TrEMBL record:
This is Purine nucleoside phosphorylase. Keywords: Hydrolase, Metal-binding, Transferase, Zinc. InterPro entries: Cu_polyphenol_OxRdtase (IPR003730), Cu_polyphenol_OxRdtase_sf (IPR038371), Cytotoxic_necrot_fac-like_cat (IPR011324). Belongs to the purine nucleoside phosphorylase YfiH/LACC1 family. SUPFAM superfamilies: CNF1/YfiH-like putative cysteine hydrolases.
Length: 244
């Protein structure tokens, strides 16, 4: 696994940007106090500004419901009213992304087969292995070979700060088949370890996993939105990917 820090990204406005050959992976920050909350006018303006800033035809996102639903984007449907928490596509010049403020944004890129994905993985999505389902959908629809797939795990609330109930802890230990001391520190849960296991089980190579090693709750080098830290404010990060 490759750990990434702010220094590994190009900075463009209040975004952190990774330029690959045929794709770009982008994480918004709260450096300019912008929020990508789709339920606010400010958020819609911020989302729309991505078209110009990154030269894409459309910005595609979902009505996120903490599900394990993964949808495939094609031109025919009005996508933004659809409920779900994962999007995949093989369309070029389309940004697909997810909103988070502590939950895990997972970006999937396969440049060889020309397929990308964006997943919103909170505790429910992580518990229900939504990333694994997105990776499977890519195989089912596009025959993607995951030997060439790269995974980018964005900033989220990490084991350092993510305390859960005893009940939820038991639930994860029972279901996840990961050593307790890797998964938990006391009642602090690592969503990342669950996602990494799902990703490895799906055939992704460890060297192709990139972890943006920042916690939305306690990171001090880059400003990020945290739901817990702000007592549930409307600040949202938007993590997205596009095929050039
Ligand atoms: Zn933390």
């Amino acid at each position: 696994m490759n750990r990434m820090h702010k220094e590994n990204f190009k900075i463009k406005k209040d975004f952190l940007l990774l330029e690959n050959n045929k794709s770009s992976v982008i994480f918004s920050t709260a450096e300019d106090e912008r929020s990508f909350n789709r339920n606010t006018d400010e958020g819609i303006d911020a989302i729309n500004s991505i078209k110009e800033d990154f030269n894409v035809d459309k910005v595609i996102y979902l009505n996120q419901i903490h599900s394990d639903i993964v949808l495939n984007y094609n031109d025919e449907i009005d996508f933004i009213e659809n409920e779900g928490d994962g999007i995949i596509t093989n369309k070029r010049n389309i940004a697909i992304g997810v909103f988070t403020a502590d939950c895990v944004p997972v970006i999937i890129v396969n440049e060889v087969d020309g397929v990308i994905g964006a997943v919103h993985s909170g505790w429910k999505g992580t518990f229900n292995s939504i990333t694994k389902k997105a990776l499977q959908r890519m195989v089912d629809l596009y025959s993607v070979n995951h030997k060439n797939t790269k995974i980018y795990i964005g900033a989220h609330i990490r084991k350092c700060c993510y305390e859960v109930s005893e009940e939820l802890k038991e639930k994860f230990i029972k279901e996840k088949n990961i050593k307790e001391d890797i998964l938990f520190d006391g009642r602090n849960l690592s969503l990342k370890e669950c996602i990494i296991k799902d990703v490895i089980d799906s055939g992704i190579l460890e060297e192709n996993i990139y972890d943006f090693d920042s916690c939305t709750y306690c990171e001090d080098k880059v400003k990020l939105h945290s739901y817990r830290k702000s007592n549930g404010s409307y600040g949202r990060l938007f993590s997205f990917v596009l095929l050039k």
